[in-house]
Write a structure and sequence with these properties.
Blueprint lengths: L3 E6 L9 E6 L7 E10 L2 H9 L14 E9 L11 E4 L33 E5 L3 E3 L6 H4 L2 H15 L7 E5 L3 H12 L3 E6 L4 H6 L4 E4 L5 H8 L5 E6 L5 H8 E9 L12 H6 L3 E4 L5 H14 L5 E6 L3 H10 L4 E5 L8
Parallel strand pairs: 8-9, 8-11, 9-10, 11-12, 12-13, 14-15
Antiparallel strand pairs: 1-2, 3-4, 3-6, 3-15, 4-5, 5-7
Helix pairs in contact: 3-4, 3-9, 6-7
Length: 346
């Protein structure tokens, strides 16, 4: 395919370096596919990469973003997993197909799109075919684009690592993308869900199926969670805050329960009292998204249950700065950039 396209790039660290440029449409190489991007879901991590680099080996000019949904429009030589016009979504960690993550004790692997590898905030991308999975047939591109990071993170925690069972209790912290996927996936599996979030958003959490909701700013937050569970505690906690908040998770988790350590909004150095963790036989899972096989399973579950991810606002490609500002303010669910969207964000 010949012609030009638009692509966001930075030539150095800083959101002020963002520039929407017109460049040539790439040609797919051997075992690569050319994807016409329909939508890109934003993650808080994307903003952090632009603003600080996060110590990643960025190659400039660098295109941010990791989560796309689109359609294959050209095949490179040797492609066998997909055909023309197949709808696909990206995989956040392309080298992690199944099993344990690559790397060793000294250097765990964190090779992701929009970080170690180039990102996807572009009208077309040419990438290896094994970096994609088939998109859910029941979702449009905007909703499908939310699965590669937020969706798979919640799924990997609760289903792959936590082996969630019907009747268990899940405590979800916040109302962002991962949190709301956690709510929806937990309900899909017959669990009871407690949502901890801002008071002004808890009504919307109830509308999605939450069984209980607690204002996260309450001084007696731990007691409130324990009262809801009759002092039993939560079987699974999606710990999205990090920092000292891990200590609250240790206090509210049930005996034999699971803490899924995902977020670091309060810092990467976590603290918690040891005795509750020891005496309650708690398992702490470090969750850094998930592998391709799990994403494929999530797609099957989405199609089978007709789960609809929560998209808060959609923006056009040229509205990326406004979308990032919205990300700063916080969202209920996901913020998505659509390539063909024609109105101002909303």
């Amino acid at each position: 395919m010949t012609g030009t396209m638009r692509r966001w790039e930075i030539d150095g660290i800083g959101r002020n370096r963002l520039e929407l440029r017109t460049v040539a449409i790439p040609e797919p190489g051997r075992n690569e596919v050319l994807v016409k991007v329909g939508a890109v879901a934003l993650n808080y991590r994307d903003k952090m990469v632009m603003e600080s680099g996060r110590g990643l080996p960025l190659s400039f000019p660098f295109t941010p973003g990791s989560d796309l949904a689109g359609t294959i429009v050209e095949l490179g030589d040797g492609v066998s997993r997909f055909g023309l016009h197949d709808r696909v979504i990206s995989t956040f960690t392309p080298d992690w197909v199944d099993g344990l993550r690559r790397g060793d004790a000294r250097t765990p692997s964190y090779r992701t799109l929009g970080g170690y590898y180039p990102g996807v905030l572009s009208e077309y991308v040419a990438m290896p075919e094994h970096w994609f999975v088939r998109a859910p047939a029941t979702l449009d591109d905007a909703h499908a684009s939310t699965l590669p990071c937020a969706g798979i993170t919640a799924w990997f925690a609760l289903v792959e690592r936590g082996h969630l069972r019907a009747g268990e209790t899940v405590l979800v912290e916040g109302t962002g993308g991962v949190a709301l996927f956690g709510l929806q996936i937990a309900k899909m599996h017959g669990a009871q869900v407690i949502v901890s979030g801002s008071a002004d958003k808890l009504g919307r959490a109830f509308a999605l199926g939450a069984d209980h909701a607690i204002d996260r700013r309450r001084d007696d937050w731990v007691d409130a969670v324990l009262q809801v569970t009759g002092d039993r505690g939560a079987d699974h906690i999606l710990e999205l805050v990090g920092g000292a908040h891990l200590g609250k998770a240790a206090q509210t988790v049930a005996v034999g329960g699971h803490i899924h350590l995902i977020g670091a909004l309060e810092g990467f150095d976590v603290t918690a009292p040891v005795m509750p963790l020891l005496l309650k036989d708690v398992t702490i899972h470090g969750i850094g998204t998930g592998h391709r096989r799990a994403l494929q399973n999530l797609v099957v579950a989405v199609d089978g249950t007709r789960l609809t991810p929560v998209v808060d606002v959609r923006y056009r490609l040229d509205e990326l700065p406004a979308a990032l500002d919205h990300l700063d303010r916080g969202a209920f669910g996901k913020i998505v950039v659509e390539m063909a969207r024609s109105g101002l964000g909303g």
